[in-house]
């Protein structure tokens, strides 16, 4: 589970750019307009993501996760900057949740759970799990649970987007990120361990 989250460094690379954006935007809100400094907030967010990439390069460590975070921050920043709306910084996250949620839901409904496919590959049994009713049922509900997580994010966050409540939207995005992702990874891991108990040596 810890490896799946990338350890402390992976968590920081995932959370800090968004946190910096929210803090900077909130601190710079002008009471007369109710708007924060969009450009400063975006620059700091993308800048910290770039720092993470450089730090990994200097340490000669894999940069895939950090580069992914930089690209995500850059795309979100470009969209917000182009439209001039800070709330548009969150649109890529909405699209990601829609795609992942739909993929998990559809895979469960057609009997080819993405969880089952991934576990089958990792455990070296391919699609043999589909002939086991217990595994099929478990992988079905795990995929539904993951789809529900992505759907919950959209249900809670999209109304705030349309209300242009950037501070609340950013805060809830952080709260519904790693704090919900980690327990889901743990539950998935425990379920898989129950289905594939270690063989005695």
UniProtKB/TrEMBL annotation:
InterPro entries attached to this UniProt entry: UCP010219 (IPR016566)
Keywords, alphabetical? Membrane, Transmembrane, Transmembrane helix
Q: Which residues cross the membrane?
A: 7-27, 39-59, 66-86, 98-119, 139-162, 174-196
Supply the name of the protein. Answer: DUF3159 domain-containing protein
> What organism is recorded for this protein?
Microbacterium pumilum
């Amino acid at each position: 589970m810890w490896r799946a989250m990338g350890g402390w460094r992976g968590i920081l690379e995932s959370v800090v750019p968004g946190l910096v954006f929210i803090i900077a935007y909130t601190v710079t809100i002008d009471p007369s307009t109710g708007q924060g400094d969009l450009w400063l907030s975006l620059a700091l967010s993308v800048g910290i993501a770039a720092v993470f990439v450089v730090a990994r390069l200097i340490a000669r460590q894999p940069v895939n996760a950090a580069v992914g975070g930089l690209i995500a921050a850059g795309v979100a920043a470009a969209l917000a900057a182009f439209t001039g709306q800070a709330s548009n910084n969150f649109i890529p996250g909405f699209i990601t949740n829609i795609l992942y949620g739909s993929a998990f839901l559809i895979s469960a409904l057609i009997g080819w759970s993405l969880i089952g496919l991934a576990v089958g590959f990792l455990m070296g049994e391919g699609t043999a799990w589909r002939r086991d009713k217990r595994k099929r049922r478990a992988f079905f509900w795990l995929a539904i649970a993951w789809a529900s997580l992505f759907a919950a994010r959209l249900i809670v966050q999209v109304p705030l987007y349309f209300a242009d409540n950037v501070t609340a939207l950013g805060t809830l995005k952080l709260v519904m990120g790693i704090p919900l992702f980690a327990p889901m990874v743990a539950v998935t891991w425990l379920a898989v361990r129950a289905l594939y108990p270690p063989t005695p040596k």
